[in-house]
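Supplementary Text 2. Reproducibility record for the structural model of the 190-residue chain.

All settings were left at their defaults, and a single model was retained for analysis rather than an ensemble. We include the record here because the model underlies the residue-level annotations in Supplementary Table 4.
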Amino acid sequence: MKILSVQTGRALARMIEGRSCLTAISKQPVSGPVAVGTMGLAGDEQADPSVHGGLSKAVYLYPVLHYPFWQTVRAQARAAAPDQALPYGFMGENLTVDGFDETRLWIGDRLRLPDCELAVTEPRRPCFKFNAVMGFEQASSLMNQSGYCGSYLAVTRPGTLQAGDAIEIVPGPREVNLRELALARMRKRR
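Retained model, structure tokens:
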């Protein structure tokens, strides 16, 4: 289990659904060590702190395992060519990871890295900005229905992290699974 890529982004004005919105969903890869503090990665911004960022949502992690799924559904929605690969960070994540997904994460688990530690806090709830990036308006619903949501993380031990860092999952109380929580929220919304 490891970090494949680290991304940060600046909040920029963008036209979405006919209105100007501030968004930092477009993340770009960063090379080398990146400082991580209690409020997130150095150089990363959140446009709307009421739903992104803060102590419990300082870092957003997404499994690379789901990238082929999104590539396929974007092609089916005619938002992209079938062979158009998604670059790391496309989902708006800070950390693109390999070796595990939401089914292996529980609220309260710790992700121990060589120079910092992060805690699993909650699944992502995508919004209309995610639809705009994906190129079709059902993207948020599809993320909710699939449970391919990724995880928000709190920083429990600041330090640095970088692509290639190994991740050790230190089990928390194991009462609430991340994917099961995401799917339960979806059922409740119906």
